Amino acid sequence: MSKKFSSQKKSAPTEQGTVIAAHGRHYLIQAQDIKLHCVTRGKKSDVAVGDIVEYQLTSANQGVIEAIVPRSTLLYRSDQYKSKMLAANLTQLIVVVATEPSFSDDLISRALVASESSGIRAHIVLNKIDVTASLPKARERVGLYASLGYPVHEVSVTAQPEVTREKMLSLIQGQSTILIGQSGMGKSSLINLLIPDAEIATREISAALDTGKHTTTFTRLFQMDAYQDRPTYVIDSPGFQEFGLHHLSEGMLERAFPEFLPHLGHCKFYNCHHHTEPGCTVLDAVKRGEITRMRHDLFKQLVHEAAQTIGY
């Protein structure tokens, strides 16, 4: 059942389209072979890039969003005061890191927790492997995530563009993929390698949404050729340094750490928080080195942040 935005009686039939960009309450909808500038009814809006929506035309290239078709997934981040939807109906998330500049393990782990809690597959792409001096250390750091079951793909956009393009295409074909990365990791270069006219498309989207020079502040979806009758979507997100997860409860968080799963339900106390309790199987696993202290510290930090928001 679609999520309706208004109880007002609709005066015309609706059609469906995919949200390819959002700025405030203004959305760009890909509908068949045209793009429409749409708004929502009322002040509140919770439409995300990647949403399939029902819209009603108000002119040849404008419309009003009436409803959101039920989503398969939703990825968003939140702090103590507000949440930010990143994209809907994703099938996978790719975290882009590089040999240099140094990347943030905290951001990677938070993105992975978000993907786990949303039911979205996660991959890590290590870019700039041609910078050989920094490669061993970078490999060691991403090796932690590989050991947890997250695939790591090594590429070099500048030194091996064709090889990189083929490797990335095999990864994203038939998927709806969001790329996440800090500034300097080469995410934009990857997007431009996969979608040669991405910059032109971004300027067109910016003009349609009237965002002017703020082209890097919004998420946008690019549709590529279909693969085995499945659409291929690549979603580019603005670079950010923080990934808040204040909306996740303690129970959701502990299940979003795959290395915790074999130990859950075996603690001495049924309501164990895995902080300092005696007989905690998670803490025992930390002592044995089966769970790294860095990841366990992140779990405690995320629980602390969530408690400040939801008050438990």
How is this fold's topology laid out?
Blueprint: E1 3-4, E2 15-23, E3 26-31, E4 34-40, E5 52-59, E6 62-68, E7 74-78, E8 83-88, E9 92-98, H1 105-118, E10 121-127, H2 135-147, E11 152-154, H3 161-172, E12 176-180, H4 187-194, H5 198-209, E13 220-227, E14 230-236, H6 250-255, H7 281-288, H8 293-310
Parallel strand pairs: 4-6, 9-10, 9-12, 10-11, 12-14
Antiparallel strand pairs: 1-6, 2-3, 2-5, 3-4, 5-6, 7-8, 13-14
Quick one: biggest sheet? 6 strands, mixed
**Order of strands across the main sheet:** 11-10-9-12-14-13
Q: In percent, how helical is the residue content?
A: 25-40%
Number of strands: 14
The topology string of helices and strands comes to EEEEEEEEEHEHEHEHHEEHHH
The helix-and-strand class reads alpha/beta
Oligomeric state of the chains in view: single chain
Unreliable sequence segments: none
* Radius of gyration, in angstroms, nearest whole number: 21 Å
Protein model, in words:
- The chain has 312 residues and is an alpha/beta fold.
- The protein has eight helices and 14 strands.
- The strands form three sheets. A six-stranded mixed β-sheet has the order 11-10-9-12-14-13, with helices on both faces.
- It is globular and about 65 Å long.
- The model has no long low-confidence stretch (mean pLDDT 89).
